[in-house]
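Researcher: Let's do a round of design. I'm pasting the structure tokens now; please hold your answer until I've finished.
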């Protein structure tokens, strides 16, 4: 089975359109899963604890076109958490955001999480990966495509299959917004391929 993982869209309609078209071309039939931050919250982290809103349009960027393209399941990111925290309304979209899962499993081989739940730091800015859980975890948050196997950061090239069956592996799928990156995971081959929409 093949899975296309994409995230950190931040409400970018044009970038998402390009990525979805690329997935359709490169991996028709692949199941899509989002790694969170589908939406852009326009209220800062500093303001969020002190403000409440009763309309989503005052809190986030979205359009009917964007919503129509978001047909796939996704974990919640820090943007969705902030939107849910500061908005009180009965809009169906808010209910959808509130019910996004923190983690999605792929068959019995991998987990998907946004990654903001982990502690981050250092240079380059990296998460402190958990020591327990599945041996293959897909995440986003930093907008940087990346591959870490058994604590070793690997050089990443686009269009190259990487074996993800040989150790504890963390795959940062990169960002749709700006970079138009995504990852193709083949459970039968045990590989991931980092993908980028080329102009």
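Researcher: That's everything. Go ahead.
Model: Designed sequence:
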């Amino acid at each position: 089975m093949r899975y296309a993982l994409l995230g950190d869209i931040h409400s970018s309609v044009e970038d998402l359109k390009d990525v979805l078209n690329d997935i359709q071309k490169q991996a028709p039939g692949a199941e899509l899963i989002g790694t969170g931050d589908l939406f852009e919250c326009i209220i800062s982290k500093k303001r969020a604890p002190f403000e409440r809103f009763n309309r989503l349009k005052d809190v986030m960027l979205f359009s009917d076109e964007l919503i129509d393209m978001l047909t796939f399941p996704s974990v919640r990111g820090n943007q969705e958490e902030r939107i849910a925290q500061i908005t009180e309304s009965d809009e169906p979209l808010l209910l959808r955001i509130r019910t996004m899962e923190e983690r999605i499993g792929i068959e019995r081989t991998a987990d998907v999480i946004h990654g903001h739940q982990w502690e981050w730091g250092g240079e380059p800015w990296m998460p402190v990966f958990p020591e327990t859980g599945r041996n293959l975890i897909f995440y986003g948050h930093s907008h940087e495509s990346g591959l870490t196997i058994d604590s070793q950061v690997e050089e990443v090239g686009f269009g190259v299959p990487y074996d993800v069956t040989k150790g504890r592996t963390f795959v940062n799928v990169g960002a749709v917004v700006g970079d138009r990156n995504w990852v193709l995971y083949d459970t039968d081959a045990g590989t991931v391929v980092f993908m980028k929409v080329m102009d």
